[in-house]
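Usage

Read records sequentially. Each one opens with the input sequence:
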Amino acid sequence: MFVYQYLVNCNAIQPSLQFPLSFVYEDSIAKDDISRTVKEVVEGVNILKYVDFSHRNSYGYDGMKMLECVLLAFALKGYASVRELEDLCKYDIRFQFIMNGLTPSHMAFHRFIHDDLLMPVEDLFVEFNKYFESHDDIDTDVLYIDGTKFEANANKMTFVWMKATRKFREKRWKKIMKRIISFNIYCKNESIPVQLSVLKEFSFEYICEITKTIEKIMNQKNIELKSGKGQRKHPLQRFKEEFEEDAEKILKYAVYYTIADGRNSFSKTDHDATFMHMKYDYYNHTNVFKPGYNVQMGSSEGYIRHIYVSSDANDVNTYIPFMEGYHMAYGKYPCKTPADAGYGSFENYSYCKEHEIDLYMKYSTLRKQQEELNDKNRFKSYRMQPDENGQILCPEGKEFTLEKETIDTAGQYRKKLKHYRNEHCADCPFRSKCTKSKQGRTLTINEELIEYQNEVLTNLFSDEGKELMKQRSIQAEGIFGQIKQDNNYARLCRRGNPGVKLELLLVSMGHNLRRYHTRKKQNEHKLMA
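and closes with the structure output:
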């Protein structure tokens, strides 16, 4: 009894010495080691403004030191699991230097990351960037933007396609309607006073009421439920089981629609992941579908300034929410945002004009417009643009006639569209190559978009524009190369949008610490020289 009472009241206490052991490792760590840079940055940022360590148990580890260990591991490895963090604290002298010889377990690191860093990690990321900005020469007026797809931590063969779900749902609806009609005929023949309504749209609740009604009839007639081989089921039992199957399917489809939330697909393992085109490698070009996330990153001088995690496979729809998040974090917009053709659209150009951002984003037909005129591209719509007098000529030299003007209000910005038609197509020898319409070739022109595209061309082919696009290829795409190829980090480890964002922010903070450490050493060498 005494032993049992003792075991119940005992508490697990982390043993530690009463004096710090940092001086033991002090002389073993080089003065220019990255571990000292991590301690400098963490101690230079007001961490306690965003993270409250007061709730930690008395036998827990120091939160600041745990954060330094996590960031140092991400700076060294690109990504570090909690198991690797545990081993590093046991065998790496730099981590022993930070932890004063203590060795937290992998569960201690898991609780720290999940409980203490999940919510404030985005604020810490911004504060770290402000620290780098104040201690390094960073041109924040230019933000290089690029996107990449990270494979989600989802199992194979877990995809759900909403197009197929809609098709199966419609088939199930037809089966339910036929089954209700058959049940009504059976009730009429058996003189059962029940008549079910045939609805245009079914619901889970309605099918459940039907099963309850059938169960009530079976109880009144004392019909026993039968199962197993050689047992003949009563027709009412068959109806009941079939309607129960219908209810199960309807509920499943309703859950799928809720999870998808407008997307065309998702994974059963990671509901926030969407199936996107990805490659196994850069040689066989398989272009298979994999569950993943579209990650946008903006960088300045090699530092990752902002990230945006999206389920949208297209980059064009991510630009505006990405920039809104950047403005919310730093309170300002960059002056220039060089990006590839995936971001060029009327909506994004209008957004840039509204917030005084210079247009340095390519558009999809830019490269095609630079090609020489030939028989393949001479009939394309981007080759038929208004001239200085506002006239549009087809390849045969015939003028288009303005039919009507409309305003498209579907997007965030209103589009003024002009609709043209060529009335000279009937006798044209190139009609088969140009159009299949019997009424003649039509064009829809957005003059405001053409002005934006002309401004993009002027900016991109200037000396400054050429240098910016060159640096975009080096910096934005170079960061993805370092993260995915050099650090072998192409597949996410956490699931769900919050976990994925936490993981990518930690990876970005490790990258920025590594970048700051390199720049600091370069500046010190310049001063010594």
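Summary fields computed downstream for this record:
- Strands lie at 144-151, 159-161, 265-267, 274-278, 288-300, 303-310, 401-408, 415-421, 442-445.
- Residues 346 and 449 are 6 Å apart (CA to CA).
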